[in-house]
């Protein structure tokens, strides 16, 4: 085993939080094994309100496993995930009852998938897609649900006239923006994104990135975003976690990590990207 | 209550090569346990080991098993299909119980204490002490939104019912109003979303706060559920698109009733139509009491 | 004056009368006896017993007569009768290894202990209509069959000796199905499932799965098995062994404390051998698919074995994306008595539901016309 640059145990100070604000999400000693194969091991990080954390690494590095465990969608083999709700209560995400976990996912969190298909209902209209999270939370006024859906279509730069069209008639970029509208309509505090710009054309990517950056700032969201694209990471995240073979090899402020990488793997990763 | 004896076909004539009401006692006990659980958790679908019955699946095997499990020798049974006592399947099921249980039967809603039904709730208000047994083809209200049992059971467990409203939303977005006319989903006692069986939504309001016990049996799908007496049953809707029932712009052409569900009868091949009560007992009783077709309005 | 349709009762009686008349057909032709059906329509009787899940040749033959040859109707009759039967005892597991074999073929080994025995099979007949059978006919006496070797070990047991195939006993620690996969562990009494006495649960144990497949519709399982061969969930099967013969049925009444033989039944058993490439911590080995039918039912047993293996996708960490691998889909739809009842219930009146839909449709049309004006056709007519 080669000696690798150690991960700073005390993480960089929060970018946007006040002095004694607790982290909104704390991941401790997270590990996931798939049979004999390691998905991830020894992963820990904290996320403060209003902060965007990027997880980068090549495919197979374990970043999506970490994201799914952190988002309560995949049970880890070891470690825990603590979420502090707006009322100050802390929830051990994988220890609480499934009902409570699902409620958190509906009320406080949102997830944006790489493929819009996984995050949308392709068989119902755009309006129903955006309205569903509200209805799941008990909204029972059709007119208000529809107005909210229309607003969110506009905010995600989708023509409000398309409200009754199915997502199957949308372009890839529009489907992804629709997924963002569906994720944010119920005003979550924490958003998980898995390669949200993957599979889109470069120009379409740029538009989505601008949109995401604007919305995250405007709504003061905390977010964990997984990407293999360092440009995406630089644009969206305040802090970075670099993963390789299931482990975190480097962490720090985004600019710091990308401009002055310490770990040889990060150096390789940064060098392999054409600098602007 | 005074019921003229002539309205009830008296008990007797049981074929004793079969156990009383066909099912063996162990099976009846198993069904009764499921029924008790169903009554204790209103609207929850209790799995039960449905038996193979001598009538086809989809033709009332669930309702027949429930009726067989609750029937006593001194009960008076009424069987209806589409609201009528004389439709072939109702006749066939009534004959089955006359043969295997020898119980008294009737067409009078108020004379019966067990009423097995397919697709309707009688127009005559039910009273305490009566039991209405529904035949159910597909007990799962979420089935056409989510085909998997493993997933729908999870959705019920977490009361995760947003999807149900998505369907209603889509109806309004497309048609301007909710376009579900029968098997209209309801929420029972504020907890479980339930399929009322394919009764027209016209009958939904009768289910709520009903003094009678309502039992539902789905034989092929092996599920039993129940609405205990005086339980709140709400039809799902939106605040600004509230649940409404069907109305006809004319009365029954035979008895003049304006408050009953009307069947459309095609009278000729030139577009001739008439509308008559689907509940044959209700219609006949009204005519006996002197009601008749209303005068055509000028 | 309109009079509501009445007389359901008389209509039913008349229908029953017509049915009896049609069943008999031309009375100039001699009436068929259940004995004739039992002896000369053996494969039809066997299928009715298998899917009716009741081993009774006389009753199955009678059911076929009553059902006018309709197999599913006959299966239905047998099932409804079966429900009413008291249960005296549960048999001990039958040992197909000790079968008195009538036919036994293996596609995996040319020769093997006990040899290959063709037995009564259509396999190598030319499918030419034999006009001789139109007249009374006595088959040529068959050359005396060589006595069948006493020891006829099951082919898959031979592979098991070398550890080349997964263990057959789910309790074996090397068995790939998860510990609770037999389903028995879930039950308080530790006994195998009884699908006729318990509601279905998903995921089902392999015991409940095999029982459901054994009662499942031959045509449905055949089509699913075929789909797996054509690439919808490939399992690379070999017919390890198909054997047909009789086995004794034993019960062990508690008060006696020993086994007694109560009779014998004819069975067809098929064991498929399927590839498995191995996993992270498991050596490559062959895997099993199992099929069993009453009487002579090779098509059924083979189809069942293929479908059984496909449904075990999870145990071998195979992706489940084909219909044949989807447990809920296969098990919920393979019972032909359930399927036929529900499909045919559409014959029952749906007046009130249809009335509700009619009313809605008329309203939607009125609203549509009010929004868009009368349609083109109406305009043209004016």
UniProtKB/TrEMBL annotation, chain C:
Q: Keyword annotations for this protein?
A: Lyase
List, alphabetically, the InterPro entries matched: PhnI
The Basic and acidic residues compositionally biased stretches are 185-205
Q: Which GO terms describe its molecular function?
A: lyase activity
Q: Which residues form a coiled coil?
A: none
Q: Where is this region: Disordered?
A: 167-205
Whether Isomerase counts among this entry's keywords is: no
The biological process GO terms on file are: organic phosphonate metabolic process
What protein name is recorded for this chain?
A: Carbon-phosphorus lyase complex subunit PhnI
- Which organism encodes this protein? Marivibrio halodurans
């Amino acid at each position: 085993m080669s000696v690798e640059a150690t991960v700073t145990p005390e993480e960089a100070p929060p970018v946007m939080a006040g002095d004694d604000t607790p982290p909104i999400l704390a991941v401790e000693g997270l590990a996931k094994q798939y049979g004999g194969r390691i998905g991830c091991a020894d992963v820990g990080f904290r996320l403060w309100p209003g902060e965007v954390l990027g997880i980068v690494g090549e495919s197979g590095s374990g970043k999506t496993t970490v994201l799914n465990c952190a988002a309560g969608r995949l049970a880890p083999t070891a470690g825990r995930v603590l979420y502090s709700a707006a009322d100050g209560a802390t929830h051990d995400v994988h220890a609480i009852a499934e009902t409570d976990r699902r409620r958190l996912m509906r009320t406080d969190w949102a997830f944006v998938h790489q493929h819009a298909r996984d995050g949308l209902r392709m068989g119902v209209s755009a309006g129903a897609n955006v309205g569903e999270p509200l209805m799941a939370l008990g909204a029972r006024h059709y007119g208000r649900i529809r107005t909210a859906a229309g607003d969110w279509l506009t905010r995600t730069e989708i023509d409000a006239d398309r409200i009754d069209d199915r997502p199957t008639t949308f372009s890839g970029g529009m489907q992804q923006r629709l997924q963002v509208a569906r994720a944010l309509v119920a005003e979550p505090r924490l958003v998980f994104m898995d390669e949200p710009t993957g599979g889109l054309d470069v120009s379409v990517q740029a538009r989505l990135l601008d949109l995401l950056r604007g919305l995250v700032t405007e709504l003061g969201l905390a977010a964990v975003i997984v990407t293999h694209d360092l440009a995406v990471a630089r644009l969206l995240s305040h802090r970075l976690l670099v993963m390789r073979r299931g482990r975190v090899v480097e962490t720090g402020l985004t600019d710091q990590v990308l401009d002055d990488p310490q770990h040889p793997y990060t150096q390789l990763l940064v060098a392999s990207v054409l600098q602007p | 209550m005074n019921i003229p004896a002539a309205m009830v076909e008296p008990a007797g004539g049981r074929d004793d090569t079969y156990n009383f009401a066909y099912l063996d006692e162990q099976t009846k006990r198993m069904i009764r346990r499921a029924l008790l659980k169903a009554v204790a958790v209103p609207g929850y679908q209790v799995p039960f080991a449905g038996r193979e019955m001598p009538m086809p699946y989809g033709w009332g095997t669930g309702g027949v098993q429930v009726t067989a499990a609750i029937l006593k020798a001194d009960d008076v049974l009424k069987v209806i299909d589409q609201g009528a006592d004389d439709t072939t399947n109702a006749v066939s099921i009534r004959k089955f119980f006359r043969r295997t249980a020898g119980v008294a039967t009737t067409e009078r809603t108020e004379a019966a204490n067990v009423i097995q039904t397919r697709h309707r709730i009688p127009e005559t208000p039910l009273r305490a002490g009566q039991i209405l047994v529904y035949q159910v083809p597909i007990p799962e209200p979420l089935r056409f939104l989510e085909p998997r049992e493993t997933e729908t059971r999870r959705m019920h467990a977490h009361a995760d019912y947003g999807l149900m409203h998505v369907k209603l939303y889509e109806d309004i977005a497309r048609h301007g109003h909710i376009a579900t006319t029968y098997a209209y989903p309801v929420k029972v006692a504020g907890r479980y979303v339930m399929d009322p069986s394919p009764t027209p939504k016209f009958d939904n309001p009768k289910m709520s706060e009903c003094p009678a016990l309502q039992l539902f049996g789905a034989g092929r799908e092996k599920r039993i559920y129940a609405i205990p007496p005086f339980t709140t049953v709400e039809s799902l809707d939106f605040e600004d698109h509230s649940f409404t029932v069907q109305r006809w712009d004319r009365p029954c052409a035979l008895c003049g009733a304006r408050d009953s569900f009307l069947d459309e009868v095609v009278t000729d091949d030139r577009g001739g139509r008439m509308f008559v009560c689907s509940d044959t007992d209700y219609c006949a009783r009204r005519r006996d009491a002197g009601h008749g077709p209303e005068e055509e309005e000028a | 004056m309109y009079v509501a349709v009445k007389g359901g009762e008389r209509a039913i009686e008349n229908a029953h009368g017509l049915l009896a008349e049609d069943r008999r057909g031309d009375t100039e032709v001699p009436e068929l006896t259940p004995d004739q059906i039992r002896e000369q329509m053996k494969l039809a009787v066997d299928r009715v017993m298998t899917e009716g899940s009741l081993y009774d040749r006389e009753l199955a033959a009678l059911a076929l007569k009553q059902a006018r040859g309709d197999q599913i109707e006959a299966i239905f009759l047998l099932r409804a009768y079966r429900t009413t039967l008291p249960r005296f005892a549960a048999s001990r597991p039958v040992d197909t290894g000790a079968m008195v074999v009538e036919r036994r073929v293996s596609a995996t080994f040319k020769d093997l202990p006990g040899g290959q025995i063709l037995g009564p099979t259509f396999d190598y007949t030319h499918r030419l209509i034999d006009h001789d059978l139109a007249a009374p006919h006595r088959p040529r006496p068959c050359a005396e069959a060589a006595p069948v070797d006493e020891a006829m070990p099951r082919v898959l047991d031979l592979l098991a000796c070398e550890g080349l195939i997964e263990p057959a006993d789910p309790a074996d620690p090397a068995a790939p199905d998860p510990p609770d996969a037999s389903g028995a562990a879930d039950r308080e009494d530790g006994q195998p499932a009884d699908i006729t006495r318990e509601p279905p649960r998903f995921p089902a144990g392999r015991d409940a799965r095999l029982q459901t497949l054994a009662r499942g519709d031959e045509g449905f399982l055949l089509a699913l098995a075929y789909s797996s061969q054509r690439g919808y969930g490939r399992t690379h099967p070999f017919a390890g062994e198909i054997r047909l013969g009789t086995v004794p049925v034993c019960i062990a009444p508690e008060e006696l404390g020993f086994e007694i033989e109560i009779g014998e039944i004819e069975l067809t058993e098929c064991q498929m051998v399927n590839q498995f490439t191995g996993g992270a911590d498991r050596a490559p080995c062959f895997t099993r698919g199992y099929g069993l039918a009453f009487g002579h039912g090779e098509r059924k047993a083979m189809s069942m074995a293929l479908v059984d293996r496909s449904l075990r996708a999870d145990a071998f960490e195979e992706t489940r994306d084909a219909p044949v691998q989807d447990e809920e889909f296969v098990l919920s739809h393979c019972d032909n008595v359930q399927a036929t009842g529900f499909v045919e219930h559409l014959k029952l009146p749906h007046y009130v539901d249809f009335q509700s839909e009619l009313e809605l449709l008329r309203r939607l049309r009125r609203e549509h016309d009010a929004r868009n004006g009368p349609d083109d056709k109406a305009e043209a007519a004016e």
